[in-house]
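Q: Structure tokens for this one, please.
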Amino acid sequence: MTDYQLPMPKLSSAYLDLIDEDNDLVNYFRLINLYNIHPVVEKCYSHAGPQGYGIGLFLSRILKIKQTFVSDRILARRLSENSTYRHLCLLDKGLTPAHNTYNTLRNNLGVKRYAEIHVNFVNEANKLGLLNPNIKQLPKNRRQGLILIGDSTPIRSYCSSKGIKQKDGSWIFTDPSVSFGRPHHKDKYPVGHKAHSLITITGIPMVSIVSTRRDSDEIHIFPLLDEFKKR
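A: Here is the predicted structure, written as tokens:
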């Protein structure tokens, strides 16, 4: 009897993650409707030169938030090290993007195209009945319509927290919108900005405005409603 040793194809280190039905991150990315992103990202490139990273850049931005990577440098490094991340972001066929590539993406998309992508996802959620579900606990005689809740969230700043203390006890940082320490005792870390949002009763953000940390929530209610009506 002769023994034969057949060469087996090399399996990616992402294989076990991708076939794991209980992997929450993999399942999350599989549920993303790429058509909400692709047409908008396509507008940003002329296609005159070599094919770029395309939609993979935007998917990796989603990965950055899901995995709480605090900088584009960390995101670029994690993508180069982790094959699962590359598969999820459709960046497994070639080189991974450098950190400065994301700055180009932000400049090309701009606020309007980011908002356009968000509107696409909101419209999909509306078709699925997620914006205004039938909740038995609500009064039956209430006025019909979408229930919106105003909320705000401080945005942590990762700039240098070494400020210059002023005579009045306040601090000045490299980013003038950053506040830290005693003036805002609830914030135990440098806070640069605040996101003011209108969200549905199911927690889906409909529209957001970013302001400095010092702004109160009340002054942004009507601007939020005006922006919501435009969409």
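A few notes: Residues 148-230 form one domain. The chain has eight helices and five strands.
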